Amino acid sequence: MLTVPPFIHDIMSHGTLGVVVGIILFCYILEDGALILSASLAATGVVPPIVAWAAVFFGICTGDFGIYVIARILRRPMGPVEFKTTTALSNRELFLCRFVPGLRTVAYAWCGMNRMPLWRFGQVVFWSGIVWTAGVFTLIYGVGAQLENLPVYWKLIPVLLVIGLMLWWRRHWRPSFLDKSDDSSNNSPDADGNPHTASDATR
Fold first, then answer.
1. Can you say how many angstroms the Cα of residue 60 is from the centroid of all Cα atoms in its chain?
2. Residue 4 falls within a domain, yes or no?
3. Using CB atoms within 10 A of its CB, is residue 89 exposed (0-12), middle (13-18) or buried (19+)?
4. Could you tell me if residue 77 is inside a domain?
5. Does this model's pTM top 0.90?
């Protein structure tokens, strides 16, 4: 069962504007939970669907940009740690990271640390956010609004299928930027300036 923090409940009690603000703030705490909450509120008539979707889309996108900006700001003041990775993360990989559990935050922080151009990051995140939020929102809203009289297990089947597909995808797909990052770390110079090799790691 989705648990919403009490202060979010208090904010959402102040009409439509309160619901919008509550959804946006909840996105910064639990993005997927906010997406489910917004679709559920729209399905029960608490707020118009377009308003609920716009609120969750804004919250998720601004949260994604926040990860990128924070990672980029923290890149320099992290002491002796240096990010020399030159691996290029393709637009396709960045787009697909949105749909794989556990990769989104890692990928967006990686983009910030490696100074990916903001315009490029923003375009990919914007369109992947459109696809993700619209798809999941429509699925949950349709289940809640159109299949109201069906048993709960029938309502959960589409959601479980989507979750299962994402978990399978996460298990079998590994973006090349993660593999190359591992390789680069293995070949990076040590404290004496000598490069590490695979054989060194086995010693």
1. 8
2. no
3. buried
4. yes
5. no
Q: Count each helix (H run) and each strand (E run) in the chain, helices first.
A: 10, 0
* Residues present in the chain in total: 203
For residue 28, give its domain range.
9-176
List per-residue pLDDT tens for the chain, 203 residues long: 567 888 888 899 888 999 999 999 999 998 888 988 898 888 888 899 999 999 999 999 999 999 999 999 887 655 444 545 545 678 888 998 888 777 888 899 989 988 899 999 999 999 999 999 998 888 888 775 555 555 555 555 656 666 666 566 556 555 555 554 444 444 444 444 444 444 444 44
* Counted domains in the chain: 1
Nearest to 55 by CA among 15, 8, 23, 29: 23
Beta pairing partners, 121: none
Would you say 181 and 87 are in contact if contact means Cβ atoms under 8 Å apart? yes
Residue labelled with tokens 């990076």: 188
Q: How many CB atoms sit inside 10 A of residue 1's CB?
A: 2
